[in-house]
Structure formats: C-alpha cells, structure tokens
Amino acid sequence: MTDQLAGLADDRALLGRTSTAERVSDILRSRIAEGYFPPGTRLSEDSIGGALGVSRNTLREAFRLLTHERLLVHELNRGVFVRVLTVEDVADIYRTRALVECAVVRGLGEPPYGLDALADAVAEGLRAVAEGDWKALGTANIHFHRELVALAGSARTDELMRSVFAELRLAFHVVDDPRRLHEPYLTRNRQILRALQDGDRAEAEKLLTVYLDDSLDRVVDAYRRRVGEGAAG
Question: Under CATH, what is the fold of the domain 2-82?
C-alpha cells in the first residue's frame, strides 16, 4: 500500500486549487486501471486523503462516484474496497467491449485514419515485452483498445469505456500468468493496426471480434480455475 500512496502523492499536483470529487475519482479510476489497487484492496480515507491532500467529504464523494461505476464497493462497518468481479461481470465487460469497439471500427468511414496513438500503444507493448514486464504489457493492451475507441471521436463513448477498461484491469488480476494472457494479443494488436493502416475496416473488425472472443475465454477460464482451487483448499 505504501507504493500506491506514494504514487497518489505524485498525482496531487493534478488537483491544483480546483480539486473536486470528479477529479479525485478520475485519479483513482486511472490508478485502478493501471493496476495499483488490486481487487479486494481496502481504501483508507485517511491515507488516500492525506496523499492527495483532499478533505474527507471530497474523498467520500469520489468513492461514491466510483461505487456507482462498479469499481468500488462499500461494506457496512468495514469500509470501501476495490471490487472483486464475478465471471458474470467479466462476460458483461466483454459483451460491452464487443458492442462498442467493433462498432467504432465499423463506423470509421473512409481512410486514412489517425492511427498515431494506436501505433504508440503497440510500441509501448513492444517495450514491455523487451523488459519482461507483463503487467506493463497488460496496461499497454488496455491503452491500445482505449485509443481504438478514441478513433470514434466521441467524448461520451470515451467516458463510458474508461470505466469498462478500469473494470477489465480488475479482471486481469485474477490471472496468475499475465504473460500467457497478454503476450499473444500484442501480435493481434499489430495485425489490427496494420489492417487499419491498409484501410481495411472489415478485416480489422474480423480480427477484433476473434481477439475479444479468445480473450474472454482465457479470462473466464482463469476465473474458473481460481474458484476451483479455492474450493479445493
């Protein structure tokens, strides 16, 4: 928890003099999406409020907003925790991803497309592989899909998917072998990028559909193994 709080203290400058619960929730959402707060983590009002330099009331409102987004859960007499997802949650996340991401690709219009941010996310993934940092590779994969959604040019869609991708990171924490989960999808990201660079939306959508189906199967399988191990223990 100490490392996470140190990171939050660095984020304090983002608040400035106009700190609001929305900005605090943005910071915490980003930290959850980057994997700093794993599922089941209890979020201390005193520690986090002190790290960010915000009042207890502001922090509680931020917690309320993130609870509404299904990222946090309030347990009576125990406090606020990062939510632990179920298999049903994971299936719903991927259903939403398929609906939104495939629709974005399908609706891109005529090429060329602005793909620099998408290419940057692929490069980020390649650097993570070179460094053997599989958690960072998972983050790069999320960045790739976030930038894919951003191609729609819709602030509302971006806002919707920010929460979905943050929930996705919670699902990834259940996987005990992040390399096995994330490494194959770097190649698929490159294939999707190449199809879009070629202006082939249909091929990009086909690749994306198979990608999401396979990823869902892998994550759900990891959940079921974890549940089975828990029952056996």
Answer: Arc Repressor Mutant, subunit A (1.10.10)
